[in-house]
Design goal:
- With 422 residues, the protein is an alpha+beta fold.
- It is built from 15 helices and 16 strands.
- The strands form three sheets. It has an eight-stranded mixed β-sheet.
- The structure holds histidyl-adenosine monophosphate (HAM).
- Histidyl-adenosine monophosphate binds next to strand 6, strand 10, strand 11 and helix 11.
């Protein structure tokens, strides 16, 4: 017995309404990004491993455990992108685009992480990604967050989400805070979860967002990052919060929000939801002023961005997206079938979605026409060809009208209004 082929664990095929939602979300994000001055960039799905390894943090889960790494036939060590940001920074540097700042860049597509699959967590998933390069002021952080709110509002899912924000401060603030956490958590080393014992050595900030109950209890009295901000960091974060307040954007301060990738500084944020179980982050990102120089550029370039998980956005969106309804041509007899080729060509060039139905008798053809949810059926045989008047039947109220062949496109266009495809 042959084994039925199946998709790789953690991947999925998209079809039907799910595919339509993805297409819709990408097109909406693309339009929105254009409204805010973003240009679209497409970077390769695989890159040299170095692009992600150091920049995301060798100690991060993504680099440590989740990257799809492989050697190609030429012996190069490559990896499938686990996110967009580092690849986009690589592109800016290798294309010499750092002379043209500021730049706002939008991307979308698949990303890959070898995580344990569960609801809302895939190994191949898709992101909408937005980055702003070259603006050091908090205005960029505020604009980006307000664009995220705009996206969620347009999708009518804003009320299902909560915006959580934090600041990791600048490099010095972060270093000092890290030391304070090491000192604090070392006192509880034996009580920490196995994962957090490792984090204590490698990335103590991540203990703060551990899901382990005992880790959470220990974290309650951990030093607060707010006590380690430099004056500049504090001012920056105050201005971000002030901007959000001016725009009427609600947020929750979450001092334990540290993010899983190492390149962040200053503002970090996540839009979370209670509707999707434990995989609750929908859109997430923050500022990363040191990543460009970390990647080898001689310039320090301020940057801020976020990515949204398409699978999670789609799960929250959950609406049925219907396809535009077609017009059907129902030719009767060989002469009409030949003429149908010419007429269908002509109507499609006018942007009218059209199906030609040739199988079966008239009854069967009409049945097929209603089963594909057609708006109008145009029925014609030798008599209509001779008189040049065709019968156009509305499939909603079954009213028939006689329309001159040469006026068919004009007639349908007036009826279809904005149902045209292009
Ligand atoms: P991230 O938090 O790793 O950030 O991912 C962003 C979003 O991708 C998450 O909020 C979630 O919606 C989605 N996501 C992450 N992992 C999975 C998964 N296994 N399955 C399904 N969805 C997932 C980044 O990737 C940063 N590059 C964002 C960024 C852009 N920061 C600055 N610019």
């Amino acid at each position: 017995m042959s084994i039925k082929p199946h998709a790789v664990r953690g991947t999925q095929d998209l079809f039907g309404n799910e595919q339509r939602i993805f297409t819709f979300l990408i097109s909406l994000a693309r339009q929105l990004s254009s409204l805010y001055g973003f240009q679209e960039i497409t970077t390769p799905i695989f890159e040299f491993i170095e692009v992600f390894k150091r920049t995301l943090g060798e100690e991060s889960d993504v680099v440590g455990k989740e990257m799809y790494v492989f050697n190609d036939r030429g012996g190069e060590t490559l990896c499938l992108r686990p996110e967009f940001t580092a690849g986009i920074v690589r592109a800016l540097i290798s294309r010499g685009m750092l002379d043209k700042l500021p730049l706002k860049l939008f991307s979308s597509g698949p990303v890959f992480r070898y995580e344990r699959p569960q609801k809302g967590r895939k190994r191949q998933f898709h992101q909408l990604n937005f980055e702003i390069f070259g603006i050091k002021d908090p205005i960029a952080d505020i604009e980006l967050i307000s664009m995220a709110v705009h996206l969620l509002t347009k999708l009518e899912i804003k009320n299902k989400t909560l915006l959580e924000i934090n600041s990791l401060g600048d490099k010095d603030s972060r270093l000092q805070y890290r030391q304070a956490l090491v000192d604090y958590f070392s006192n509880y080393k034996e009580d920490l979860s196995e994962d957090s014992k490792i984090r204590l050595e490698k990335n103590p900030l991540r203990i703060l967002d551990s899901k382990d109950e005992n880790d959470k209890k220990i974290s309650l009295n951990a030093p607060l990052i707010t006590n380690y901000y430099s004056d500049i960091s504090k001012k920056f974060f105050d201005e971000v919060q002030e901007g959000l307040t001016i725009l009427g954007i609600d947020y929750k301060l979450n001092l334990n929000l540290v993010r899983g990738l190492d390149y962040y500084c200053h503002t970090v944020f996540e839009f979370t939801t209670e509707d999707l179980g434990s995989q609750n982050a929908i859109l997430a990102g923050g500022r990363y002023d040191y990543l460009v120089s970390m990647m080898g550029s001689s310039k320090d370039v301020p940057a801020v961005g976020f990515a949204g998980g398409l699978e999670r956005l789609a799960a929250l969106y959950q609406k049925e997206i219907t396809l535009p309804r077609p017009v059907t041509l129902i030719p009767i007899g060989p002469n009409a079938e030949k003429e149908a080729m010419i007429i269908s060509n002509n109507l499609r060039y006018h942007g009218i979605k059209l199906e030609v139905i040739t199988n079966g008798n008239l009854g069967k053809k009409m049945k097929k026409s209603s089963s594909i949810n057609s708006l109008y059926s145009i029925i014609f045989g030798d008599t209509e060809l001779e008189s040049e008047f065709f019968i156009v039947k509305s499939m909603d109220d079954f009213i028939e009208e006689k329309v001159l062949k040469s006026k068919l496109s004009q007639y349908l266009l007036s009826k279809l209004n904005n149902l045209l495809i292009f």
